[in-house]
Every structure is written in C-alpha cells, then in structure tokens.
Design brief:
By secondary structure, the chain is α/β, with parallel strands linked by helices. The protein has a single domain, classed as Vaccinia Virus protein VP39 (Rossmann fold, 3-Layer(aba) Sandwich), CATH 3.40.50.150. 36% of the residues lie in helices and 14% in strands. It is built from 10 helices and 7 strands. Strands 3-2-1-4-5-7-6 form a 7-stranded mixed sheet, sandwiched between helices. β1, α3 and β2 form a beta-alpha-beta unit. α2 runs parallel beside α3. The protein starts with 7 loop residues before the first helix and ends in a 14-residue tail after the last helix. 43% of the residues are buried. It binds S-adenosylmethionine (SAM). The site of S-adenosylmethionine has 25 residues, from loops.
C-alpha cells in the first residue's frame, strides 16, 4: 500500500515547524520551493541510504525523510552537532539554531512528521561521523544533502567524504550556492566548489538552481574516476581556504 504524505496540513506543518531557510519557498501558497525537489528526487530515485549534513530546523531532513517513508524503503542518516549562531558564533555556523541539542526534542520534532523510524540523528560534526562511518556500519550513500559548515574547505571535505562512500549515480545536493555576499567575503565557498566540480565533467554532472539561497544537484558519474584524480583532493586552480 503506497502513501503520499504531502497533504495541505503537512505542507503547513513543514513550513511552520521545519522552517525553510533559503529554499525558494513561498509559505503563502503552500509552496515548499526546493523542498518539492528534495521530496521528488527521493520518490523518483528510491535511495536506500540518504545522508543529510546540517540543517537549521530540519526542512531538508523532513522533505527527504517523508519521501523515504512514502517509498516504504530506505533510511536517512542526519548529522548535525547542533551549533547555534548565538552560542557558537558565525565562524562555526551562520544559520544554526541549536535545534538538535536535546535528543528527546529531536525525536519529538521527527515524530510530528512520522519520520522518526526512518531518520537517525548523530549529534557530532560530519568529519567525526565520517571517521567512524565503518564502525557504525553505515551503508554506501545513494543520495546526500550537504548543508553543514559552508566554508570552501569544509564543503570540499564533506563532498569528498561523500564521494568516498558513493557509487555510480549517487546524487548530491549542495545547499547555498547563491549566497553571493558571504561568498564574496570568503565566508562561504559552496558556489566556488560547484564551479570546480563543473570543470570535472568526466566525473560529475552538475545543475545549479541559483534562486533564493540556491541549491545544486550533482551526479557522480564514475567514483573511480573522481578518486583516481588526485586533483579531486587538491584542486590546484582554487585556494582550499574558505
Ligand atoms: C546554516 S544551518 C543550515 C541552514 C539551512 N540553510 C536550512 O535551511 O536549514 C547549518 C547547520 O549545520 C550545522 N553544522 C555546522 N558545522 C557542521 C559540521 N561540521 N557537520 C555537520 N553539521 C554542521 C550547524 O549545527 C547548523 O545546524
């Protein structure tokens, strides 16, 4: 028996409680903006394992998690150390709201949308999760959503860590490709990293949606090509600092 979660009430709940930050949403007419893309990609591709790195209030996790649930198969791993702009400062996070500090509140947030059985939250930084990826018995990544630390170096590291655990036709969303002031000030480097990926068309297919804060979708064509190229670890034409 199939299910379709995106009723009017659920759309309202997502917009109120999972509070999108820069996903081209329009609450007035229940438009999830990119949220429909996230939901649609999971329904269409049916990933077994989805990984989300970072989220303000859970918008990406809920949109992706509802689709995993509606597919009736798959799981979602969510990693976020629960940084808060006020507590930890703008060098640790810009949009972080400390939403993921209390595990019971985290569970309640997911229960509201009925995704508590498909989502597992790890309250650590992504680099720590990747270090213990094997020990945790986490499976290869079919779909990833990268929205943690936005510095060029951290986005590059998150992306490469995903590729290490990817396969042909793994898809990767990168949020915040269109935050040009922060990008100009070198406080963010998502767009710069996406530009670098576009130059590696033997390894990646890239499409950018430069609306609102922007999101890009990357298809891993052949992970062995990405891994063979040492350049994927050391982009030479672009500085690796943020
Ligand atoms: C800027 S918010 C995401 C806002 C996002 N645009 C949205 O709409 O929800 C970034 C989140 O990434 C988390 N974060 C920061 N550094 C991280 C890291 N190294 N690994 C995983 N998450 C991280 C923060 O705790 C914060 O909750």
């Amino acid at each position: 028996m199939g299910s379709f979660s995106l009723s009017e009430d659920v759309l309202k709940d997502i917009l109120i409680h999972a509070k999108p930050l820069g996903h081209h949403e329009k609450p007035r007419n229940l438009n999830l903006g990119f949220g429909f893309l996230y939901y649609g990609v999971v329904r269409a591709l049916r990933p077994q394992h989805t990984l989300v790195i970072g989220s303000g209030y859970g918008f990406s996790v809920i949109c992706l998690g509802l689709a995993v649930k509606d597919n009736g198969q798959g799981s979602l791993t969510f990693v976020d150390p629960s940084y808060s702009l006020l507590r930890d400062g703008p060098m640790k996070t810009f949009g972080g709201r400390g939403t993921w500090g209390d595990e019971r509140a985290v569970q309640d947030r997911f229960k509201r949308f009925g995704v508590e059985d498909v989502v597992t939250h790890f309250k650590v930084r992504s680099e720590e999760l990747f270090q213990s990826y094997g020990q945790l018995g986490l499976p290869p990544i079919d779909l990833a959503f990268i929205d943690g630390s936005h510095s060029f170096g951290d986005v590059k590291r998150d992306f490469n860590n995903v590729v290490e655990r990817s396969h042909k036709n793994t898809y990767v969303f990168l949020h915040d490709t269109n935050i040009y002031i922060r990008e100009f000030l070198r406080h963010a480097g998502v767009k710069r990293w996406v530009k670098w990926l576009k130059q590696r068309d033997e390894a990646y297919e890239v499409i950018d949606f430069p609306f609102s804060s922007g999101v890009a979708l990357v298809r891993v064509l052949e992970p062995s090509v990405c891994k063979q190229s040492q350049a994927y670890r050391q982009p030479c034409s672009l500085s690796s600092s943020s």
